[in-house]
Design goal:
Radius of gyration: 25 Å
CATH superfamily of the largest domain: Aldolase class I
CATH topology of the largest domain: TIM Barrel
Shape: globular
Largest sheet: 10 strands, antiparallel
Helix content: 25-40%
Strand content: 15-25%
CATH architecture of the largest domain: Alpha-Beta Barrel
């Protein structure tokens, strides 16, 4: 079948979408063109375009030696290691980087990959010896030249996930009634050697937040501390967290984790009422979990460790009462503000819940979370802002680079489409942490087939990242409060 026939067959499945045309010969990019994409064939198209009069004027200015219309649109780490320099402006650390410079309205024409330096303190960049190179590239600019057309989302989001959740065990010592773990047929731990091989497929230097979590209890994997150490060895900068039910969080386990370079611990406690806790965390008793948590806090404080500690709660009954008690308890302990969530409201999950819980639950309309944030400021006024990835997208770092805020994707877009990925203990990618409870699981790619960066810009992009950006909902996203409000199921 010819390419023309392929496109004709696929025409009924093409969606309107913003696209970029990359002109590889000149290393230029035309941004945000009105185009189309096919999720089925993973292709993108854009009609021929003529530069606007405003863009032509800016090009002429640059060619005349006036770079005033250029603006930094993207900062990427340089391929070669180089020592930091001092910023000419503020004296802060400046990194050797690759700079993209945008020209014209909304930086519609981008000159990619110029050598430069970037100051992470004051947010300023300098392209080195770029005048001749910029002029040479602009002189070769031909908007009608053959190029590669790709979804604009590729440029508006990191080229590699900045947050990574990794499942290292599908064993658990609890039987929480709202969790599908009890129906999981394969319950085992990830071996340390296998973990290291999977980690080889991840560009850990670009991962800012690394969570050990999943459909199991991470502390049941006796190699967990060694895994934390392996991540820390490869990524000194990373924020590494373990999410645990707290039943095994004794000195025998938490001391090696802290010594390995752990940044944070999150303990799942849904209520400080012992009966409610027992109903939601079947197999656990509240008092020992609180004793373990308080022991960890004392250990941290006595040694002056920079360990972040928080409670993660799924609010089920009398939600404001439970939230108030958890907030006050956390403030007294001197730990971070609790993270509150509701029962998974996706259509894939609600069928397995006790209907009473669904009736008692709260709607994620922001009112309780706004109240909780305000109450926390009253209870812990000196705690400062939380640098928690669950609170929003993390800013760029010297490890991962950044995209200029004016070019970022829709801020309401689900973070799993923007900068976060979930890997099972087999190295398979799920669309998010919520879908880990879906049985059978729907995976979108495997580290056995490519690196995480290749999956991120390939199967994960076309499977759920781009659909979400275009208001289309994969099956696992239907009913999720983070999905597009008026999204159409695929």
């Amino acid at each position: 079948m010819t390419a023309t026939a392929d496109r004709a067959v696929d025409a009924g499945r093409r969606l309107a979408a913003p696209v970029d045309r990359i002109l590889p010969e000149a290393r230029l990019r035309l941004r945000n063109l009105p185009g189309e994409v096919s999720l089925a064939s993973r292709e993108a198209w854009a009609p021929p375009v003529e530069p606007t009069a405003e863009l032509e004027r800016e090009i002429a200015r640059c060619l005349a030696g006036d770079p005033g219309g250029l603006a930094v649109t993207r900062v990427s780490p340089a391929l070669a290691d180089a020592p930091p320099e001092a910023c000419d402006g503020c004296g802060g650390p400046a990194s050797v980087v690759r700079l993209d410079l945008g020209l014209g309205e909304n930086s519609g024409l981008v000159i990619e990959g110029l050598d430069g330096v970037w100051c992470w303190s004051c947010g300023s960049g300098i392209a080195r010896n770029a005048q001749e190179e910029v002029a040479a590239r602009l002189q070769r600019f031909d908007p009608l030249a053959d190029g590669v057309t790709v979804p604009s989302l590729l440029y508006e989001t990191p080229s590699h996930p900045r947050s990574l959740q990794f499942e290292v065990s599908t064993r658990c010592n609890l039987a929480c009634p709202y969790c599908t773990h009890r129906h999981l047929p394969d319950k085992r731990n990830l071996a340390l050697e296998s973990f290291a091989k999977l980690l080889d497929r991840v560009d850990v230097a670009q991962v800012e937040n690394f969570d050990f979590t999943g459909l199991g209890e991470p502390l049941m994997n006796r190699d967990l501390a060694a895994m934390v150490s392996e991540v820390r060895l490869r990524a000194e900068h990373a924020f590494i967290r373990v999410v645990t039910n707290g039943t095994l969080l004794t000195p025998r386990f938490y001391e090696p984790l802290c010594n390995a370079g752990l940044s944070a611990v999150a303990v799942s406690i849904d209520s400080l009422d012992a009966d409610r806790f027992a109903r939601s965390r079947t197999g656990a008793t509240l008092a020992p979990v609180l004793a373990n948590l308080e022991s960890l806090v004392r250990y941290r404080d006595e040694r002056g460790l920079p360990l972040r500690i928080k409670i993660k709660a799924v609010l089920l009954e009398d939600v404001y009462e439970d939230a108030e008690r958890l907030l006050a308890y956390s403030a007294r302990l001197g730990i971070d503000m609790p993270h509150f969530s509701q029962l998974d409201s996706r259509s894939n999950a609600t069928g397995g819940y006790d209907t009473a819980w669904l009736e008692e639950g709260w709607s994620d309309d922001g009112r309780l979370l706004d109240w909780a944030a305000a109450r926390w400021r009253e209870l812990a006024p000196d705690s400062g802002p939380s640098n928690d990835p669950e609170a929003g997208h993390w800013p760029g770092t010297a490890a991962a680079g950044l995209v200029h805020p004016t070019l970022l994707s829709d801020p309401s877009l689900c973070r799993w489409a923007v900068d976060a990925a979930f890997l099972t203990l087999d190295g398979e990618a799920l669309s998010c942490c919520e879908t880990m409870i879906d049985l059978p699981r729907v995976t979108w790619g495997s580290l056995g087939d490519g690196t995480l960066q290749e999956l991120w810009t390939g199967p994960l992009l076309w499977g759920y990242r781009l659909p979400l950006a275009l208001g289309r909902l994969p099956a696992g996203c239907v009913g999720c409060p983070q999905a597009p409000l008026h999204g159409v199921p695929l």
